[in-house]
Amino acid sequence: MRQLLLCITLFCFSLCINAQQEEQKAPKRIKWGVRAGINASVPHLSNFEMDGIDTYNFQGKGRVGFFTSVSWRHIFNRIYLQPEITYSYTNGCTTFDITEKVKGENYIGQDLEFKSHSLYVPLFLGYNFIQKAPYIMSVYVGPQLIYNFSSKYYYNSRDITTDETPLKFNVSFGLGAIISHLSFDFRYNIDPLRTNTTHYNVYATNNLQEMTLSYKRRINTMSFAIGYYF
Predict the structure, then answer these.
(1) Which DSSP symbol is given to 23?
(2) pLDDT in tens, 55-87
(3) Total-model pTM
(4) Closest CA to 33 of 73, 60, 64
(5) How far are the Cα atoms of 93, 103, 120 from residue 207, in angstroms, in the given order?
(6) Residue 69 and residue 185: Cα distance in Å, rounded?
(7) Burial classification of residue 204, based on how many CB atoms lie within 10 Å of its CB (0-12 exposed, 13-18 middle, 19 or more buried)
(8) What region does 43 belong to: left with phi over 0, alpha with psi -120 to 50, or beta?
(9) Which of 29, 43, 174, 215, by CA, is between 20 and 30 Å from 151?
(10) Whether the Cβ atoms of residue 80 and residue 29 lie closer than 8 Å to each other
(11) Dist. CA 59–CA 24, nearest whole Å
(12) Hey, how many other C-beta atoms are within 10 angstroms of the C-beta on 207?
């Protein structure tokens, strides 16, 4: 009788150990993560006008910014959904020349800069094309809602005002890798539509008369991040 009870006890103990091991091997269906990284935003302008005079001699230049985010990943085998909340600082510059005279002046080597603090709320659909513990590699794509809660523009380092709307959206796609808990991401954000923007209180260096700048713009942004999934 004692031997039978001992055998039953050992069998139950063995089942408990196996269950715990299987639970440890089972992948988590929900993961929380944090990320931080750098970005580079390049403005693409068209229909650029200064006081109604067209110019085609302009060039967008990307500058380095930074961002940090919190994400939540719900995994369905190899497919996953991932919403995020991201704080981002982006900035960039457009240089241009106007060879025609505007109010009696030529404008060569002019600078239009922007600096934005924004909240991004993306929703990504991803696919793990490599999924072999502890390595995961995936591709993902999704829309992003953007709220620019602080945007400043400068013409030749002077503040100017704008009629730009703070609420926007774009589309992002990327490539990600996870090694154990550590993650690496490369993303590219694309503005699908050009937005109309007008700046006021524009004063040239050698001309104190007020002017306006207007154009259509979209901004594409590349970013790289390192993160951690809990």
Answers:
(1) H
(2) 767 788 889 999 999 999 999 989 999 999 999
(3) 0.81
(4) 73
(5) 22, 8, 39
(6) 12
(7) buried
(8) beta
(9) 174
(10) no
(11) 55
(12) 14
